[in-house]
Write a structure and sequence with these properties.
With 383 residues, the chain is an alpha+beta fold. It contains eight helices and 19 strands.
């Protein structure tokens, strides 16, 4: 049989490949490409991601007025999404144009809906200022997606597609020494898990502005997009201000801390699913446990509405520079617990009755999860 043309997934050049070869090394960039099947159950997913990769490059050019010259390769699978994109093993320094600190901030108010929120857009504006002022993130390296009525760039609206592309931009070309932040303020929810890889039987999800038409973004997809590709020496912090968000990044370990500050790490790993990274450290600070709800309120700020998690997170870090992860978690919980609105936390017989009748947990206890275990009282919080 005659040789066929295949494109290198690293540099994009077309090469002649013998028909029996399924993995080849590029003679130009020495990148390794695995040829996926042209027929069968994965072919449609593979072809759709090739199309997605091309649209992604245009998305980045339009949103950030810069370009990242790279082609994705594909590795691994998830139950729902087939092949997911892997950033190139390495990028030339000239391509790493956004620096070692990058952030994606998503705030969604859901205008015109009965479930609209008040503080989500405020949350991401505050978070951007916080990252610049406290941790030296360059403004040009912070990508904000909001449904603010003043937003005119359609690619900065937090649709499902735009959030997916923003997560891809965040991880693209990441390398040792990078600090990445993903912040989401909006609605969260749970879906029945069909694959047996969740301890509680549910997948957690975030709700894009168009989730009623395009669907939610499940924890499996978030993990595949920004956790698994994280390289050794890189850090990812996710701050998720949404209901049911305790394990929304599907990280391997959850910190279980009581009110006295004693903690243990709960192992969430599943034999059927790899929840790890490529050597990097992923940490998630979420608004509440998987079975709890979170709210936005003006009770904490005394003025504008904010998410309780976002406000308590920013306030705690600003008030106590150099604090540990354990101190951060306990202080945020104390701030929310001490709010006397009857909204952030409900205790007593009425709350107990609602819990029993509706199956709801009306407390809000911020959670910490991680791709690896560590001593939360000696490890310093740094972005």
């Amino acid at each position: 049989m005659a040789s066929r043309q295949e494109r290198c997934n690293q540099c994009g050049i077309l090469l002649m490949v013998p028909p029996e070869v399924h993995v080849f090394e590029c003679a130009v960039c020495h990148g390794i490409t695995q040829i996926r099947p042209t027929a069968g159950p994965w072919s449609q997913a593979y072809n759709s991601f090739h199309h997605l990769a091309g649209r992604f490059r245009g998305f980045v050019n339009t949103m950030m007025t810069s370009s990242v010259n790279s082609n994705p390769s594909y590795y691994g699978t998830t139950h729902e999404f087939g092949y997911y994109p892997q950033p190139p093993q390495s990028l030339r320094p000239s391509y790493h144009v956004y620096g070692s600190k990058r952030a994606v901030l998503c705030g969604i108010r859901y205008h015109g809906k009965s479930y609209r929120l008040k503080g989500s857009v405020n949350d991401v504006k505050c978070m951007k200022y916080f990252l610049i002022k406290e941790f030296g993130f360059p403004s040009a390296s912070i990508l904000m997606l909001t449904d603010d009525r003043e937003e005119r760039n359609q690619l900065r609206i937090p649709t499902k597609y735009n959030i997916q592309m923003a997560m891809r931009w965040l991880i693209e070309g990441s390398q040792s020494g990078d600090s990445l932040v993903f912040h989401f303020s909006g609605h969260g929810t749970q879906e029945m898990n069909m694959y047996g890889d969740e301890i509680d039987g549910f997948d957690e999800a975030i709700c894009p502005v168009d989730y009623e038409e395009q669907g939610k973004i499940l924890d499996d997809e978030i993990n595949a997009a920004i956790v698994r590709p994280l390289p050794r020496g890189a850090k990812l912090h996710a701050i998720i201000d949404a209901c049911y968000s305790g394990t929304v990044l599907d990280l391997a370990f959850v910190c279980k801390m009581n009110r006295e500050g004693y903690y243990t790490w709960e192992d969430q790993r599943c034999p059927r699913t790899d929840k790890g990274t490529r050597g990097g450290l992923a940490i998630c600070i979420s608004a509440c446990e998987d079975g709890q709800t979170s709210i936005d309120t003006s009770a904490l700020s005394g003025n504008e509405a904010t998410g309780a998690l976002t406000y308590s997170f920013i306030q705690t870090v600003q008030n106590e520079p150099g604090l540990s992860y354990g101190r951060l978690l306990s202080a945020m919980r104390s701030t929310i617990r001490g709010t006397k609105t009857g909204i952030v936390q409900l205790n007593g017989p009425i709350a107990s009755l609602l819990n029993r009748l509706l199956g709801l947990d009306l407390r809000q206890e911020p959670q910490l999860s991680s791709s690896e275990m560590f001593d939360v009282y000696t490890k310093r919080f740094v972005l």
